[in-house]
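User: Could you go from structure to sequence for me? I need the amino acid at each position, not a summary. Structure tokens:
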């Protein structure tokens, strides 16, 4: 009996040790450009960074350029894709962008309760900005004046908003030109510790393609065990809705580049959760791979033929990896875990014609490719 107890204890101990994961990062900053150093201890790691400025990355050690001076809540999420152990680490960063413009931007936010209702306001502390036109975006609302109260509807649930002030110059030749900004991550009843749990509506987002006019964003629920999903993408007239666990959307570059996306879920035990996040869509590539990752699979993978009517081949896979295929609506068409071959053939003869997106995840990194199914 004693031997049996000891054996069971060792088995349970080994299992718990195998599921242990911890997340940690440090950083070095040069003005608004930050080199993040991932110091996590996670086996079979899937990483997702939220930089607090409405952008993100799946790189292990990203080098990210923030949009402007600001106070950002940076969160690194990690998940062991085998044991499903998950963890996170978060840190507030105060960054100042170098500028020779006399306008010096600075802002804070205030989230408070009055008469049993919640509000957010932006406090503009900028100096030497006279002669410029100012715009304030507070949480879910845009184009408000500093110190105005913006009501936070209880239907938001929890949210990770992005607030900002912007200063524009104007002349008859160039029109309005953005000169300076300041940003602030504005968490509202938001907690990172539920992330991949069965009762969480938290979600990842990433850029899967971009050109000179737009970016295509991909949104994916962290919780894969929900019995109900409801996405809401705001800012395109009537909200865009979806009941899949993923959704994708094209965002065109324009002056209104701050968007709001929400996800509601119902967990397997009946629990419910709602999370909203602001995303920032801006022209150019703002996150780069660090120098120690230059030879990752994204540089070696090739997919052919493109276009195709029946099948395609993927070469240069790093083992093991996870392979997923989505259509242009973000619907999952095919998935395979622990792909062990460096070359993989995929039959797409039964897929509908149109663009399909191939997502490959390995060593905590994600790459995407797109091909045309004829």
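Assistant: Here is the amino acid at each position, in order:
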């Amino acid at each position: 009996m004693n031997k049996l107890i000891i054996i069971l204890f060792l088995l349970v101990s080994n299992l718990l040790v195998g599921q242990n994961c911890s997340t940690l990062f440090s950083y070095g900053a040069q003005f608004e450009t930050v080199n993040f150093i991932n110091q996590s201890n996670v086996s079979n790691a899937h990483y997702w960074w939220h930089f607090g400025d409405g952008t993100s990355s799946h790189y292990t050690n990203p080098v990210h350029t923030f949009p402007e001076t600001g106070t950002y809540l940076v969160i690194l999420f990690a998940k062991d894709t085998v044991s499903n152990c998950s963890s996170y680490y978060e840190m507030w960063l105060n960054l100042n962008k170098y500028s020779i413009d006399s306008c010096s931007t600075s802002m804070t936010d205030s989230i408070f309760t009055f008469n049993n209702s919640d509000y957010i306001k932006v406090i503009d502390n900028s100096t030497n900005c006279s002669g410029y036109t100012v715009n304030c975006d507070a949480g879910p609302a845009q184009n408000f004046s500093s110190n105005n109260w913006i009501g936070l509807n209880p239907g938001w649930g929890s949210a990770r908003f992005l607030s900002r002030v912007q200063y524009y110059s104007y002349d008859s030749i160039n029109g309005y030109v953005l000169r300076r900004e300041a940003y602030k991550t504005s968490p509202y009843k938001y907690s990172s510790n539920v992330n991949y749990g069965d009762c969480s509506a938290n979600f990842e987002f990433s850029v899967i393609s971009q050109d000179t006019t737009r970016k295509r964003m991909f949104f994916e629920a962290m919780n894969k065990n929900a019995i109900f999903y409801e996405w809401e993408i705001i800012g395109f007239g009537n909200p865009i809705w979806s009941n899949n666990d993923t959704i994708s959307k094209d965002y065109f570059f324009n002056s209104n580049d701050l968007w709001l996306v929400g996800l509601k879920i119902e967990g397997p035990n009946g629990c419910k959760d709602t999370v909203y996040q602001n995303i920032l869509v801006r022209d150019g590539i703002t996150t780069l791979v660090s120098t120690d990752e230059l030879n990752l699979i994204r540089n070696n993978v090739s997919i052919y033929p493109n276009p195709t009517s029946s099948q395609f081949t993927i070469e240069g896979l790093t083992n093991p990896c996870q392979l997923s295929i989505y259509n242009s609506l973000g619907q999952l068409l095919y998935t395979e875990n622990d792909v062990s071959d460096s070359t993989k053939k995929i039959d797409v003869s039964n897929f509908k014609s149109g663009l399909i997106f191939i997502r490959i995840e390995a060593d905590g990194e994600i790459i995407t490719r797109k091909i045309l199914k004829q």
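One structural detail worth keeping in mind: The first helix runs from residue 2 to 18.
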